Prior knowledge:
Dipeptide-binding Protein, domain 3, 2 domains, D-Maltodextrin-Binding Protein, domain 2, alpha+beta, 8-stranded mixed beta sheet
Amino acid sequence: MTVGFRRAVATIALGALGACSAVPTGGSAADGRHAWTIPDTLRVGTPVVPRTLNPILGTQTIESSLARLTTDILVSVDEHGAFVPMLAREVPTQQNGDISADGRTIRYRLRSGVKWHDGVAFTSKDVKFTFDAIMNPKNDVVSRHGYDVVDRVTTPDDATVVFHFKSAFSPAIATIFGESDSPYGILPEHLLAKYPSLNDVPYNSAPVGTGPFKIVTWQRGDRITYARNDDYFLGKPKLKTIVVRLVPDENTLITQLRTHEIDWLFEGSVTAYHAIKAIPDITIKLTPFNGFNSLMFNNAKGPLADVRLRRALVMAIDKKRLVDAITFGTAVQAKEDLPSFLWAYDPNVPEIRYDPAGAKAQLAALGYGPGKKALDLNFVFEQSTVTNKTLAVQIQSILHELNVDVHLRPELSSVIYGGYGANGTLARGNYDMAIYLWIAGIDPDNSAQFTCANRPPAGFNHSYFCSKAMDAAQVVALSSFDRAKRKAAYRTIEASLATDAAQDFLWWPRWTQATNPDLKHFDPNPVVETWDARNWEI
């Protein structure tokens, strides 16, 4: 999902996903905590204000994270990216018989004794209801990717739900009520079945879920307060209270972190990280996720429809220099879209390396460059972040030396990432180059971005890239449950992206999580920070 849709959004080996640095602590209270710590109460600060608390209507990371305090999914992943059953008793596999041999039927056996916050029993009917709500065209869900491959959902009994697929879909466990780019929590049928649409119902401000915390109040523009769910099916959470402060100014939050008015700055920006490093008595954790920052090219029209020009631009850009200068160490230089912690990542996939002399020669062969005609390109980027502005100017400067005239076009997020019907810049292909941030789930499935069928208006392939080799490999990657076969398919997919220079993948970002060192067991997974909030303590 692009930043404009879900994420307002890596990197190292699977066994060590998080990079963590701690600074010395100050004076402590008698119980071992710092004097400013409020026992059993976590104070969170976020500059991004949520629009809804309904887990299927969220479009921002803060909404996804808050939703997981009150609701649950079927299968999550731990901090290392390994599957963990949540509402499901066991992760479905072909080995345990819960995935059919042809991959078209997946059965989830649900946990017993799970109750909604109002005391009503959770059943398989709630899962089917939520699926139907996601597929209801009246509901403004951000994505139905994966769900649209399901033919029907059946509920043989209260503890069993079965998904019948139109065709085998190997990312299903990570996508259908899993840790996808849109991790949808399960909704209560008994409270919401009466509504023809969920876009504007009281539940969206006061959700009732099965999760580890219950919402107490949402004071708009100020804070959201949660209380512990003592009857949580995975055990009573250690925290009693979570207070989320809504402060739409990151500088103010940095001050509150410094004065210990908050215990956690949620997903600090690159700029914030530069300032936070100087604050004593905090812990900084850089948490990776399946996402990338790239220089995206229009593969379908304009001068960059010529693959030779795209390859020349990739050769001209020193990614290492950009990463070092712009991300302050929060990101890792990328060579492809899939980050290195994913099982599908292949370090041996060929890449177009930095070669300014080669770029100059290639441009000259095409009639561009110093002493020849200028190559004119319009370059769009989302205008709200300092990182985007700095990156755009740096790329403009680099390409200017090759007589490439880059015309900067900053735009609002709602304009650049708007849908096809809303004349969104990327969806309509009204650009030559763009700064692009994509955030995905835990599965390496990247079909939504790069297959021919997903070119707008049909999907999120905003680079308008189309390759028969890519599409053929994607069929294998999405239909086989054999990881070795899938990995081989992704090797072909990544090689196709590199050879055709669909995008220049610049870096894999990591979220900056700055916390009170008294916060224990805070281990975000690569999709959402709150997957195991029941274990946090302070």
